[in-house]
Amino acid sequence: MMFSGQKFNALSILKWKWRGESSLSNRLLDDVPPEIELSDYRRAPSPGCESPSGFLNGEGLNAEPIADLDLFFERLYNYYCEKGLWCIIIKWIVELFSMGFTIGFSGFFLLYVDWNGLRNAKCGMDAVESGIKPCDLAKEALHLHPLTPLTLSKAVIVGYLGLFSIYWIFCFLRFFAQLRDILGIRRFYYNSLHVTDNEIQTMPWATVLEKVVQLQHSQQLCVVKDLTAHDIILRLMRKENYLIGMLNKGVLAFPISLWIPGVGPTVRTGSNGLRHHLILTKPLEWTLNWCILQSMFDRNFCVRRDFISNPNALKKRLMVVGLAMLVLAPFLVIFMLVYLFLRHAEQFYNHPSIASSRRWSNLSRWIFREFNEVDHLFKHRINSSVMHASDYLKQFPSPIISIIAKFISFVSGGFAAIMIIIAFLEESLLEGHIFGRNLLWYAAVFGTITAISRAAITDELLVLDQEGAMSMVVQHTHYIPKKWRGRENTERVRMEFETLFQYTGMMLLEEMASIFLTPFLLLFVVPKHVDDILQFIADFTVDVEGVGHVCSFSAFDFQNHGNSNYGSPYNTPRSKRSCQGKMEKSFLSFQTSYPSWEPNTQGKQFLLNLRTFRDQKLQGQGGRHTYSSPRMWRGSPSFRGPGDRNIPFSREMPFNTPWSSSGFFVAT
After folding, report:
1. Looking at 13-22, 66-75, 393-402, which range is the least confident one?
2. Dihedral of CA 543/548/552/554: which sign?
3. Are 296 and 530 within 8 A, CB to CB?
4. Interatomic CA distance for residues 440 and 419, integer angstroms
5. For this UniProt entry, which segments traverse the membrane (predicted)?
């Protein structure tokens, strides 16, 4: 099967068999000739072309070729995102100092500070009233011998300090080990792409990628073929695309309780009546990345034969990592507590309402992210949706909570105002005591209560439009499950939406809880679903010439995964296509982000179908090119094809216009 000049080995057509001989194993155990770097790159480049490493070091044809193009493009992209050499160096130095400060800060306050002595120490007016000398905190609140006696809690703290000190040394040494590679990437930007660090600050990523593609006309990066922008992004997001696909197909939905921290929307209900919820906390994401995504490929970027054919090995690896995380959990919790305190304490003190603000969870970010969507473009898109997501939840006012919050704000604000008046009259009065506390303490408490209660007061909306508010969110997230459509004003949709768009304070607590939750999932839940994970890899893996094995959704394979409800020229069974037309949406976003990329015949037919659909809708509405409905899709920028920047979309596309019975971005 051909796709834009790329050759596929269709692993996805294989049936999954665990008993007896696996058909997948048969396929992978066949002698498939390697088509990518390490074997083919040993050949000499074509005449007149420099070797890839020659771009980095200014050397001739005798230099060793790039052994890992995936790593090369990853460094190229990271250099762009970090905005140049000096930004990278300064960021590394700051991160090392920040980590060192966190370790030293926590060690000092957890071991040397005598909290009982600090609480009983008398200073200022207390010392004068007691007739004693002003306190010396260095003597009264510090332990001279912090490890005497050595208790279990102190042993845990010492273990934490030792563990993270070793990690700090590792990061320090890694800084120098990676510096050489960064300098090589910098030379590539300067000598081959003719892009300076100053130009990187404002140059779009698509322009950098276009320069890399054009460079191959004179200097080969891949000897198998000239890589397109799509090929490079496939390499860059090889592992991320699998994770996006697993979430899209519900592979990472487990039969767990709704009350578990970090749990997401319900995907399906099992035969035993248990609901399967998506979940992907940060520790679980890191674990799956290391145990699966980083381990499943061989050096030729093909799925390893033994990885697919031996599910027990993956189960064992997950359980071993779960046990290791369980042992390390106390140390991780200490570091996270100190780090979160240093990072957010000042914000919460000066702006207490931040705790009641909301942001997208880690799970929602991976649900919303599209195939082949690089990180900085995704962050730009998703950050634009925060305001609209908050507006949607404001469509569900809680009159009782608002009434109570107004009363609390009124009372606490009154007391805070009294403190301000006292400060204007005589600031020394604030040192006076009421019920054992000075007035400064009361001023801080009432000020905090006032800020939090005011944040809980919702705006009084005379007209509620949940459907319109949701459409504004969908413009940016491109996500609206079928069970939400037409039910935007229901409590069930609101509750599921809130699992994705959570309070900042609650997310911080969930991050702490996930440190203990992840070992439980790795030991008792995820291993039971290893078969499903490996089956997904088998069904949705294809071999792209010059790239290797990739998730077939990211290859924009309309013939095997198309959904005609979203304009695909092919219509495949439900089990083969992406949910909610994610592949089709991803194709549009990719073409928008990289307008110089030339899609294959299937892609061009898909674009033609969209243009035809748009023209029919315009004719059906009397040829109007502007819509007055508030529910319009202005999400991705106007779609522009490689040759014609006016096709096939206008910038505004109706949100609720059906291809069949539903809109393009909401069809099933």
Report:
1. 13-22
2. negative
3. no
4. 8
5. 92-112, 157-177, 318-342, 400-426, 438-457, 500-526
Contacts of 112 (CB under 8 A, 6+ apart): 142, 143, 146
The Cα 482–Cα 574 span in angstroms is 14
CA-CA distance, 566 to 582, in Å (whole number)? 9
- HSE toward the beta carbon, residue 58, CA cutoff 13 A: 5
Radius of gyration of the chain (CA): 29
Those residues whose C-beta lies under 8 Å from the C-beta of residue 188, and which sit 6 or more positions away, are 55, 56, 76
Q: How many of the other CB atoms lie within 10 Å of CB of 507?
A: 16
Instruction: Give the pLDDT mean for 58-84.
Output: 77
Q: Is 235 helix (H, G, I), strand (E, B) or coil?
A: helix
**Would you say 445 and 603 are in contact if contact means Cβ atoms under 8 Å apart?**
no
Q: What is the pTM of this model?
A: 0.79
Q: Which residue has the higher pLDDT, 397 or 360?
A: 360
Which token pair is 106? 């926590």
Among 67, 50, 68, residue whose Cα is nearest residue 59? 50
**Statement: residue 37 has pLDDT above 70:** no
- Say whether 663 sits in a helix, a strand or coil: strand
List all residues 6 or more positions away from 593 whose beta carbon is below 8 Å from its beta carbon.
206, 373, 377
Pairing verdict, β 358-360 and 275-279: unpaired
DSSP 140-155: HSB-SSTTSS--HHHH
Specify the residue for token string 């120490």: 121
Rounded to 5 degrees, φ, ψ at 176 are: -75, -30
Question: What is the C-alpha separation between 534 and 358, in angstroms, rounded?
Answer: 35
Average pLDDT, the chain: 80
Band (19; pLDDT cuts 50, 70, 90): very low
Q: To 10 degrees, the CA torsion angle through 339, 340, 344, 349?
A: -100
